[in-house]
Amino acid sequence: MGPAPRSKILLAISPGGAARLRRVLEGHDVTLVRTRGEAWTLLEKERFQMVIVGVHFDESQMFALLADIRAHAKYRKVPILCVLASPSHVISDVAIEGLDHAVKAMMANGFLNLANIADDETGNARIRRIIDYLILIDGDLQHIARASGYSAPPPLVERRAVSGK
């Protein structure tokens, strides 16, 4: 499989996480914004194939920006990935699990705690594969179920494996 085509990505993140994600996204057309207002101005003017939002973006405005994006018809299906990018912010595992559930409930496509993924060639390649996959499927996680003839579960339903015992 060759490299993914160049995509236009809006990166709404605090300065601490920007450097790593810029390296990970090398080859894509990345626009970095620092405030919710700046993000919204660009989202209105341009068309992005993906939005990546940091938890601590613009003094913790991640959820507000996420709601703004999903409310806009142009961005209802565009993939959104929320990230905890700065290792300097120590957050408990319970809080991280809560963030994961909250961003998915708000229709983001995923949440990544970058502190749990090594900042090396292997770890950064893993992040890049996740991002490229979300762009490739255009944020539509229901396509797999449709292609195989199954109905996909509602997006907010969590499925757990059940033991046969």
Mean pLDDT: 81
| Coarse structural class | alpha/beta
Q: Whole-number radius of gyration?
A: 16 Å
Low-confidence stretches: 142-165
- The shape is globular
Helix content: 25-40%
Distance between the termini: 40 Å
Strand order of the largest sheet: 2-1-3-4-5
Let me know the largest β-sheet.
5 strands, parallel
The helix count comes to 6
Determine the strand fraction and express it as a percent band: 5-15%
Q: Write the H/E string, N to C.
A: EHEHEHEHEHH
Question: What is the number of beta strands?
Answer: 5
Notes on the protein architecture:
By secondary structure, this protein is an alpha/beta fold. It is built from 6 helices and 5 strands, in the order βαβαβαβαβαα. The protein has helices at 15-24, 36-45, 62-71, 93-105, 121-136, 143-148; strands at residues 8-12, 29-33, 50-54, 80-84, 110-113. The protein starts with 7 loop residues before the first strand and ends in a 17-residue tail after the last helix.
Short description:
The protein is of the alpha/beta class and 165 residues long. The protein contains six helices and five strands.
Secondary structure blueprint with pairings:
Elements lengths: L7 E5 L2 H10 L4 E5 L2 H10 L4 E5 L7 H10 L8 E5 L8 H13 L4 E4 L7 H16 L6 H6 L17
Parallel strand pairs: 1-2, 1-3, 3-4, 4-5
Relevant terms:
alpha/beta; disordered C terminus; 6 helices; 165 residues; 39% helix
